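Lecture 7 notes: from sequence to structure.
We start with the chain below.
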Amino acid sequence: MRMKRSDVKTSFYLPPTLLRAAKIQAAANGLPLRAVLIAALVAYLPEDLLPRGFRTPRGEGRAA
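Predicted structure tokens for the same chain:
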């Protein structure tokens, strides 16, 4: 999946065990790691902080 012009590229640090768990979750669901991280943020953030009508990008549904 290619970045769109409106996407923001950033970096951050995660504990190795948390990153490994996220990678395992992504692989188990056939999703890219990026999709799992987006779904986790969407699930964590209160709805009033998300942009109006926000949905996870196409092909990046919630990781179960």
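Points to note: Residues 14-64 form one domain. The chain has one domain: 14-64.
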